[in-house]
Amino acid sequence: MAERILMSLPDVTQSEEDAVVAAIRSGWIVPLGPDVDAFEAELAARVGVGHGVALSSGTAALHLGLLTLGVKPGDVVVTSTMTFAATTNAVMYTGAEPFFVDADETSGNMDPALLRQALVQLRDERATVSAIVPVDLLGKTVDYTSILAIAEEFGVPVLSDAAESLGATHRGKAAGSFGRVSAVSFNGNKVMTTSGGGMLLTDDGELAQRVRYLATQARQPVAHYEHIDVGYNYRMSNLLAALGRAQLVRLDSMLARRREMRELYKSTFADVAGAEVFGGADDAEDNAWLTSILVDRDVAGWDVTDLSAALTADDIESRPLWKPMHRQPVFAKFRGVFNGASERLFARGLTLPSGSALTAEQRARVFDSIGRFLGAH
Ligand SMILES: *Cc1c(COP(=O)(O)O)cnc(C)c1O
């Protein structure tokens, strides 16, 4: 049997291997080092912000972003319910209470009207809302034009969770450049990887300095290890930064490969009644990290679970969209404003293999399998 096809695997070539070997030979086998500095400068330039701080994960970037915005125990952080758990976990680390906002059904992203409703409700309760954390779902940015205007009206800073959206844009401006601070991820399944890692991006130099300090155990600049804050060991290692720099050189070609997959899925499902590519009507600014389809069983006569079973039988991975946070046992006790959109997307959505490393044969296997399924239904 051929090997299993996964949704999104690392896309690593000889140039990444050479970069890591060169970093080892340079002797900088430590957190920090010249590749960390260069990677920060290169990614910040690519996104168009003043500062980048390379960290051990995107989750670490979210956590330190929240802390440096002043989020503290007892505060409220307003965030998307339609996301991966890392976003809410980072809020939990600060001791603040997450307050969920449901989605706009066409994009799955935070619905601006519901955000306003949430902020009005929390203002009436005299809650301390210390941050808004919208999430760019599957690589499509939230409507920052609306979200940032509402945030400003209520005087609340925005931390953008751009873990999935590196390479995407909103009205031509790069994901990772919105709000006071953004977090991106280089986990193994994202558009580019350092095997594990993340970066905090911001135009605020003081905030970036504070994050660097907290990420390296909060050492005071004296020889005898003086500490006045609780610190974290969250810095990226120099070897992984070398890998990241080599990935960044290839980012545009990797994004082009993902967009090809998106187009192939769009043509495959174009004439299939009751099925559509999620967010597919407006994806010029999307990075096409993952492509999902939405299926209406009453029209299609089949369900996402039927297609998923057929793919599994052919050793091809597929998964539902993120299960909304307010439906997760661990977070179900937290409040929010809900319109049912995230639950409908969870019920109707299926994410399909989307990685840039898929070979021509693997792509053919995926589309043969889907073609056979559609032919039989
Ligand atoms: C991947 C991801 C993260 C976390 O990034 P890590 O680098 O894996 O810690 C955070 N938020 C979202 C929406 C993600 O998809």
TrEMBL record:
One of its GO terms (molecular function) is transaminase activity. InterPro entries: DegT/StrS_aminotransferase (IPR000653), PyrdxlP-dep_Trfase (IPR015424), PyrdxlP-dep_Trfase_major (IPR015421), PyrdxlP-dep_Trfase_small (IPR015422). The keyword Transferase applies. Transmembrane segments: none annotated. Keywords: Aminotransferase, Pyridoxal phosphate, Transferase. It comes from the Bacteria. Its cofactor is pyridoxal 5'-phosphate. Belongs to the DegT/DnrJ/EryC1 family. This is Aminotransferase class I/II-fold pyridoxal phosphate-dependent enzyme.
